Amino acid sequence: MNNEEIRTVLQDLPVSVGGFVFHDDDGQPVVVLNSRLSAERRMKAFRHEVEHIENGDMYDMNYNEYGGNTT
Ligand SMILES: [Zn+2]
Description:
Elements: E1 7-11, E2 19-23, E3 29-34, H1 39-55
Parallel strand pairs: 1-3
Antiparallel strand pairs: 2-3
The chain binds zinc ion.
C-alpha cells in the first residue's frame, strides 16, 4: 500500500490522543490526526497509524487506540 493513498483528516482531539484509524463505508482506511499537535508530532502520529494499517491492527476487535493498545 502506498502511504500517499491513505486519506488523512485533521480533527480537534484531546491532546493525549495523537490520532486513530477508522474505515469509511467503502472499507478504505482513514487516518484521523489531532489538529492540536505540532506538525512534527502529527507526522509521528501519522506514521504510527500507517503502521497499524499495514499490520492490519484495526481489523482486530481488541485494538483500541484510546484505551491502551493490546500490543
Ligand atoms: Zn497505536
